[in-house]
Design a protein that fits this description.
The complex is a heterodimer of chains A (97) and B (585). Chain A has three helices and two strands, in the order H-H-E-E-H. Chain A has 97 residues and is mostly helical. Chain A is elongated. The N and C termini of chain A lie close together (7 Å). Chain B folds into three domains: 442 residues, Sodium/glucose cotransporter, CATH 1.20.1730.10; 101 residues, no CATH class; 36 residues, no CATH class. The chains are: A mainly alpha (97), B mainly alpha (585).
């Protein structure tokens, strides 16, 4: 039997998705668009910070967000006893348990 | 060998490689043809997504576009990368769990309706065709620019234009590997194409970073170049390069960025990629690899833009326009190719007037020469441009073929067709699609330049809301979905037409019928369409009967990485009948 109910698994995934999407919004749309002017008053290494976020930083963060999602989902799958499932689309119902 | 010789060498070698891969990976089943037998490793799939995604426009035009837009160029940089976060978190793993071949498959099954399936198939066709037309043109343009001296005599003999010859050569290569290998052939050729294009892009970028800043890493070199560029820009153009909102208002930057992000996540040829991997976990990791590979080009592109603009302005500052014409070899070369209008250059002309005579594509095309690379390397850049155009075209053609042959023929017209018959239908439609796309490339319609606004706006407004709500909201009904797709589609489509009438129908209208919608321009209108679509789906779903139990069970299946047995499902709904509502709220 799975160690975690389906409902609990889904709620955990939903919560994580919400958190990661808020970071996505803050980094991309808030710092790169809406607050770019005030952030540009800070200059690091010759580059205004808002401009750097819009053209470089946000992209690095986007890559990291997907990485965090993939790693954290793997961990949650392991907790829920889903990690060993090899190919759920072709295996019969309930296989892997 | 000169530039032309080396270009032929590299383009020839890479074409032979692509066709070799096609022969090695040919398929004999529809599952192989549409989703590569769902056996593509994650890193390879990530590269294929990246190559599929980065078109001739990304490769040739984006750095120039960003250089000319300055800070506002971030709409493309963030828009075309941020969408992958939405794709990875909201769509990819769930659509992989669903496991069928196409986006219309999902829409048709989730919304228990063939009407929804057909609407989705038509939108897919429209979005993909508008997008692919530009790609075939790109193939022709790349051929034309790099191989003109050789193609010129041939074109005189057969009586066709150089660009036409280029398009025909590209059609032949794409048709070969798409028809033989389907998705499998396309995927593995795209892996090779990614390697070619990213190498071709990085090489001149690294060389010019080293030349200007003494540091070979473009991301670091910008710290050295940007302050100097801002200074020159202030002196000659009156504004800092890094100042925002010079070209678009804040509202438009916001709306365009959102429309491109959401549109990216809703583009059928991108979504379908996540069906090709082995399991749900692989879909998540593929999305990561894909964005990582895309980010390499997308973080270098603005640096290339800055380097090139700095180089041009500093050369102008030292020599003046006429001095540049006399001293700089690349100016003369590209003036000959028609990309710099030097006839308009005069003594004492302003920097702004000088920049207006320069085609944006120069930024990427001329960097190898500016950086002083040898002919052998310039040839690689040409092969990279070809790889970018071909890889995107082939991915789109497969999606077009699957919409017609799978969603419309095999699912609706002839559901009893045996597998060989379906495979034949797929191959025939791909050939037809290649020919049609080639014709669109040879005889471009006036609005080809507008296709980006169309493709992304429509994908954002018509697809993204139905798919996301289909996964995250069980209560979402077929009536809601169909109404939402139609509202999003018609609103976005008609507003783009109204705002771009003078470009789409130049022989009827001289000015746009509508300047903007509440300050939002044509590129950003997809954001408004998406909001309307979400609202329509929500309201109509609330007013109609909830979806049948088997559809709610399907949603439950999609959300969980493992197959849920019938007993488990029954158990879940017995224990707490209200759970389905709560889980989807």
């Amino acid at each position: 039997m799975p160690k975690m109910s389906r409902e609990e698994y889904w709620q955990k995934q939903l919560r994580r998705t919400l958190i990661l999407l808020s970071v996505w919004f803050v980094v991309g749309l808030l710092s790169g668009v809406l607050l770019i002017e005030p952030l540009n008053t800070f200059v690091f290494g010759g580059i205004p910070f808002g401009f750097w976020m819009a053209q470089q930083g946000s992209i690095f963060v986007f890559v990291s967000l997907i990485l965090i999602y993939a790693v954290a989902s793997d961990r949650l799958d392991a907790e829920a006893g889903l990690a060993e499932v090899d190919d759920e689309s072709t295996s019969g119902p309930g296989a892997g348990h | 060998m000169g530039i032309i010789g080396w270009t032929f060498f590299w383009v020839g070698i890479t074409f032979a490689l692509y066709i070799g891969i096609a022969i090695w990976s040919r398929v004999s089943t529809t599952a192989g043809f549409y989703v590569a037998g769902q056996g593509v490793p994650t890193v390879a799939n990530g590269m294929a997504v990246a190559a599929d995604w980065m078109s001739a426009a990304s490769f040739i035009s984006m750095a120039g576009l960003v250089a000319f837009l300055g800070s506002d160029g971030s709409v493309y940089l963030m828009g075309w990368t941020g969408g992958y976060v939405l794709l990875a978190l909201l769509l990819a793993p769930f659509l992989r769990k669903f496991g069928k071949f196409t986006v219309p498959d999902f829409v048709g099954t989730r919304y228990y309706s063939n009407v929804a399936r057909v609407v989705a198939a038509i939108v897919t066709l429209f979005v993909s065709f508008t997008y692919v037309a530009g790609q075939m043109r790109g193939v022709g343009v790349v051929f034309g620019r790099y191989l003109e001296p050789v193609l010129q005599p041939i074109s005189q003999v057969v009586g066709l234009e150089v660009i036409t010859l280029g398009v025909i050569a590209g059609m032949f290569v794409v048709a070969t590997y798409a028809v033989l290998g389907g998705m499998k052939g396309i995927t593995y050729t795209q892996v090779a194409q990614y390697c070619v294009l990213i190498f071709a892009y990085m090489l001149p970028a690294v060389a010019i970073a080293f030349l200007l800043a003494g540091n070979p890493i473009p991301h670091i070199a910008i710290g050295d170049v940007l302050p100097r560029l801002d200074g020159l820009s202030e002196e000659f153009l009156g504004t800092n390069y890094s100042d925002p909102f010079q070209n678009f208002s804040m509202l438009n930057v916001f709306c365009i960025t959102v429309a491109l992000m959401v549109g990216t996540a809703g583009l059928p040829h991108v979504i379908v990629r996540f069906y090709t991997v082995k399991k749900v976990r692989d879909a998540r990791w593929s999305a990561f690899w894909a964005l990582l590979f895309i980010a390499i080009l997308y973080t270098i592109a603005p640096a290339v833009g800055m380097f090139a603009k700095y180089y041009i302005l500093s050369s102008f500052s030292d020599l003046g326009a006429m001095g540049m014409l006399a001293e700089e070899e690349w100016v003369r070369n590209w003036a000959q190719a028609g990309l710099i209008q030097t006839e308009a250059w005069t003594d004492g002309m302003s920097a702004e007037a000088m920049l207006q005579t320069i085609d944006r594509d120069i930024i990427v095309l001329a960097t190898p020469e500016i950086a002083g690379l040898s002919a052998i390397l310039v040839g690689i850049v040409a092969a990279g441009g070809m790889a970018a155009a071909l890889s995107t075209a082939s991915g789109l053609l497969l999606v077009i073929s699957s919409s017609v042959a799978h969603d419309i023929y095999a699912e609706i017209i002839n559901p009893n067709a045996p597998d060989e018959r379906r495979l034949l239908a797929g191959r025939v439609t791909i050939v037809v699609a290649v020919v049609l796309a080639g014709l669109l490339g040879i005889y471009p319609l006036g609005f080809v330049a507008e296709v980006v606004a169309f493709a992304f706006g429509l994908a954002a407004a018509a697809f993204f809301p139905v798919i996301v709500l289909g996964i995250f909201w069980k209560r979402c009904t077929k009536e809601g979905a169909i109404a939402g797709m139609i509202v999003g589609l018609t609103f976005t489509f008609s507003l783009i037409i109204l705002m771009r009438a003078h470009v789409v129908l130049p022989f009827i209208f001289e000015t746009p019928i509508l300047e903007s919608f509440l300050g939002v321009n044509a590129q950003g209108i997809g954001t408004v369409g998406m909001i309307l679509s979400f609202a329509t789906i929500f309201i109509v779903s609330k007013m109609t009967d909830p979806p049948p139990q088997e559809v709610q069970d399907l949603v439950e299946q999609i959300r969980y990485p493992r197959v849920i047995t019938a007993e488990e499902l029954a158990e879940g709904s017995q224990v707490s009948p209200g759970q389905a509502e709560a889980g989807g709220a």
